[in-house]
Amino acid sequence: MGLAVNPRRGEVIINKSTMSAFIGTNFELLLRNSNRTTVIITGIATEMGVESTARDALNRGFIPVVVTDAVSSSDKESHERSLANMSKIAITLTSEELRKTWITKE
Fold this sequence. Notes:
Number of helices: 4
Order of helices and strands: HEHEHEH
Oligomer: single chain
Number of strands: 3
Mean pLDDT: 92
Low-confidence stretches: none
Strand order of the largest sheet: 1-2-3
């Protein structure tokens, strides 16, 4: 069972209107101003929005992390091909691996 992803009170929500979370938003500015270097990516349309955001993150000097069981697509072949592509440019792991490796208890 994967992690539920919900914003906490006070967290910034970025609405995107293109395939990449970086295009037409202040996402990069927020990351840089908070000294973030890693972008954890989840979402729908693996072969579109997820992969576009991962590629843009890498191109802008961030470390993209794609959570493989927290992305999806209506096209299974495209989804699997996109995950294979991203495994070459990003860290790919499951939500359980993310929890064990990256998330600390507060």
